[in-house]
Amino acid sequence: MRARVVRQAASYLLAYPDERLVERLPTIRAALAEHRVTSLDEFLDHLAATPLRELERQYVDVFDLSRRHALYLSYWTDGDTRRRGEVLAGFKAAYRASGFLVDTAGELPDYLPMVLEFAAVADPEAGEALLREYRPSLELLRIGLVEDHSPYADVVAAVCATLPGPSPKDRAAVQAMVGGPPTETVGLDLLPIGGYR
Q: Does this UniProt record's set of keywords contain RNA-binding (predicted)?
C-alpha cells in the first residue's frame, strides 16, 4: 500500500502544476505522512512556498526544454524510432487489459505520471511490471535531475525506491542493468535501443 501511495502522489507531483495540484497538496502530504513517507517533505514544502506561475516556469524549464529529463519512459530506450510505435501500443494494450480508461489526448501512453497512476490505482501488478521493465529509464531520469540540482529529483527517487533493490549510483551502473553492447543510442547516448527487452 505504501508503494501505491507514493506512486499516486508522484503521478500528481510530476504532472504540469496547476490549481488542482495546489489544492491537493494537503491531501498528498497527509497520505504520505500516514504511511511514514518523509522523502517528499522537502519537495512538498517547495511547492507550497512557490507561487504557481513560478512552479509552471520551473516545470517547463526542467521537463519541456531538456531531453535530459524526458518523462516518456520509452524515449530512453526507443527514442523516435519506428519501434517506439509498437512499444507505445504495448502500453495502451496494458491499460485496456486492466480496464483503465485513459484519455491520451496530448500525452503519449508512456508518460510517467500516467504510468504511475495506472500502477497506483488501476492495476498495481501490471503497473509494477511496467515500472520494473522501464527501471533504467527511471534511473536515468533520476540521475539527470540530480545532476541538474532539480527538486524533482526527490520525486523520481521516491518512485525508484518503490522498486526492488537499490538505485544504481551512476550511468555506468544503469548501463550494466541493461546489459549487452550498445547498438544504437538515444537521448543521453547511454541506453541501447531495445537493449534489455
A: no
